[in-house]
């Protein structure tokens, strides 16, 4: 058998044209693991409401962060793929869950190189049904339909892997070296609370606002909230941060459902009002900088902070294609590629 890797990130629109943004949002938000209501209700919410106004607003936001080469998320993912590919001895392809390059084209690319054993690598440190799970489900559907001779191994959420924690911690300490910050926000992409309950394999553990995420449980293997708190705890431990100097928040809320709390924007505002002058923000749910980090945090978040009297607002870049991260990914790939199958 011949091995290869498919790195998978979220994806972006083809351009900042509102029609392209609409097409992308339609594919994204019509995913039953993103807006997880029955098809008729999802169509009503997405096609009847959201897609009437959001594409124009989102297109304006994309316009502010778009690069000459394209969407930052795609460009940064491509750079990562190229660098990992250079360091490993098996082919590494790239795909996006929504938009281009599709998962189907990524699998085809590997298939054309003779690969029949694929390491499926969702580029999300913390598990969520709207990210990791939807990638795995779609890839499996494609495998059954179009690539029946392929075998998949999926990289699980790596939220607590010592290599990831070390690289993330180093990225933070490098950016904050010499910065006189008073507080660090660990801002994760939010999800509806319902998603957490749905992913609870024990069906009874996740109470969400109680202490469930700190109480050991098999549910944590798929609990996004637990994994966000764990990533934060481990980075804080690594950097020897004092408890009162950091806070976990959740950003990018959409719709009227209850989402994970507390929200990043309100927290930034409250901290500024309460007298914090120097704030740092890190966004560990994103491995590549994207709309949610470059616009929502680095532009909108900064503006909110300044409006209420805040002064220095430092945003730690995502891991992107930094050398230590590339080396870690290449090592994980090689460890998988050269591991012997366990004999019965
Ligand atoms: C119900 C809606 C959404 C859920 C649930 C959700 C979860 C989720 N998303 C990411 C990562 C990214 N999301 C990005 C953009 C984005 N997310 C949503 C909605 C939900 N996300 C929307 C509508 C958009 C599009 C932009 C907008 O209109 O605001 C991005 C950036 C993409 C880019 O092109 O740069 C990322 C990355 C995670 C990790 C996550 C759950 C944990
Ligand atoms: Fe999102
Ligand atoms: Fe929990």
Account of the protein in words:
The protein has 344 residues and is α/β, with parallel strands linked by helices. The protein has a four-stranded parallel beta sheet, with helices on both faces. Strands 6-5-7-8 form a four-stranded parallel beta sheet, sandwiched between helices. β3 (117-122), α5 (129-146) and β4 (151-154) form a beta-alpha-beta unit. The protein has helices at residues 18-29, 39-65, 72-87, 103-112, 129-146, 162-176, 193-198, 224-239, 264-273, 291-294, 296-307, 323-337, and strands at residues 3-9, 92-96, 117-122, 151-154, 183-189, 246-251, 278-282, 312-315. The longest helix has 27 residues, at 39-65. The mean pLDDT is 96. The two termini are 18 Å apart. The radius of gyration is 20 Å and the shape is globular. The protein has twelve helices and eight strands. The chain folds into two domains: 3-157 and 323-337, Rossmann fold (3-Layer(aba) Sandwich); 162-315, Rossmann fold (3-Layer(aba) Sandwich), CATH 3.40.50.1400. Its EC number is 4.98.1.1.
